[in-house]
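User: Structure tokens for this complex, please. No commentary.
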Amino acid sequence: MQQLVFYFFAGILVVSGTLVITVKNPVHAALFLVLAFFASAGVWLLLEAEFLAITLVLVYVGAVMVLFLFVVMMLDINLTPLREGFARFLPVGAAVAFLMITAMVLAVGPRYFGADRVAEAVQHPAGYSNTRELGRVLYTDYLYPFEIAAVILLVAIVAAIALTLRPKRQTKAQKPEEQVAVRRADRVRLVKMAPDERQ
Amino acid sequence: MSDLILSLPELVVLGMACAILLACVSRRGAGLVYGLSQGTLFAALLLTIALGPRNRDLAFHGLFVSDPLATVLNSAILLVSMGAFVYSQDYLAARPFLSREYFVLGLFAVLGMMVMVSANNFLTIYLGLELMSLSLYAMVAMHRDSAAASEAAMKYFVLGALASGMLLYGISILYGVSGSLDLHTVAGSLYQHADRSLLLVFGLVFVIAGIAFKLGVVPFHMWIPDVYEGSPTPVTLFLGTAPKLSGFAIAFRLLVEGMEGMVADWQQMLVVLAVLSMAIGNIVAIAQWNIKRMLAYSTIAHMGFLLLGLLAGTKSGYAGSMFYVIAYALMSMGAFGMILLLTRAGFESDRIEDFKGLAERSPWFAFVMLMLMFSLAGVPPFVGFWAKWFVIKEALAAGFVWIAVLAVAFSIIGAYYYLRIIKLMYFDTPEETAPLSCGREMRFVMSLNGLAVLGLGVSPGVLMALCLSAVGAGR
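Assistant:
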């Protein structure tokens, strides 16, 4: 039964993941990404990672993807220039992709990461709380990286505000400190002119 | 509690950066922000040196390490950042777009570098790298009205994100093999997984690609010239100095501390990167007319030299690389600072011709620039000569004779474009006759910078002993 559920979600995940990068319409691509998130949340639930599954749905589907859809709909993306040069770069791209895929299949294939290589997921008793375990580790063992991640978010906020905040040009507000600090050189320019020749 | 004491310099930088963020709002303006930032860096520098341990101390459940390597590199990062802030002050005061954010974001970038330098875990390395990169992306983008700066920021951001992704992918493969993120556990488990060597090499390739992107080594160098040219000069100055030190730190932590068992594998990859960087950097730099772009290609070449010491795979080789990166940070700080010295309000002196006849306008600064250029070219008795000497000697000792020969040949080719600037300064007539106008503080630091290049060149043993002890105990 569990295996059946797993293959159901995994199948949806693979199909929707492929469609994200193949469909032409960007709105459809974003919606398929939402579907992929739901499917992976389902897989996480099977692994008893309830907190992660719910956060994925709440944060990514609820907030990030909705915002993303807004942006995609607001921007008028013209696809034709993006597809220019497709034929020109195809041979090189295909060769690189082929090499990469071969290397990846050799390295990340079932030989090293097969089901027999990985330990079975631990089954926990009914009263077990994944959320509590996560919180305990996050605030003790991983306190240091947790704090750095917080600083990264702070920098992101500072950067976003500094990059987008522009003083409004239309406002007629006076700035007394600038008016008081004005010097003669800012307003008056002395121009030396040669005296006119009178005939 | 001892965790907090060991990481006191980082905590000071973090706390003060947040406080300065609040001070930005005050009407006192940029002068206050500048003073507080310099005070913070100085306090952190004193604390780093005062707390400097004789041996390894772990903190925060083994995620943070405090060892002599971290002390030396952190001190160098703080010192170089202080210099960068001094040089940038006048430029920023004359231009409204960056004046306060530069210092705040700069402090956060310094914090990220310090986290990277004293990281003992893949997780901390990655987070420190992101903290540094994010601050730098924002600093590059801050000049919003300039198309060149926007393009540079976009390129830097996209390629930097790609590099972070590569590094993360490599780290995840290594985690998949060893089951741990701790550098020393990974190092210990490499020997148990001899049957998975293919997988380890696969992960290693991605890790090296990530490091090479961050250092800017060929073939991952494409962003460097555009970003250096497009950014406002103070940002280029900051970008081109301190992050190189932290780049060396993560290369050392990942390759030497984490994967020394695979030295034969990464040695070969570094050989390719080093030879290509020295070749392309030095040859393409000759064709540049923009001095920021020329120094960008010179960076690429110097990072190739830096790898020579690492690829030797010996303790003295690592010490040579460390010497190189500290010397390089000092020299490039001076060179970019000199561009800022020639810059006035409304005039960016980023063409090589702007250096014409500098000797007539200001004999002392022309002489400082001469010392910096000779040092970058690797002429004795300046520090750049010793840096090149140590890494080439170590590469020879490790048996890479042909690479050492190539390195010498390319450094001779590279000498051309450094000497061209000296020729312009001393043998050409100036187009500009206006005397240089800059603050007393900047004059003082610039003179100190030039003399440091000479002083360290006359007695390189002091710094080298420091590097040797740092690398020897970093095991």
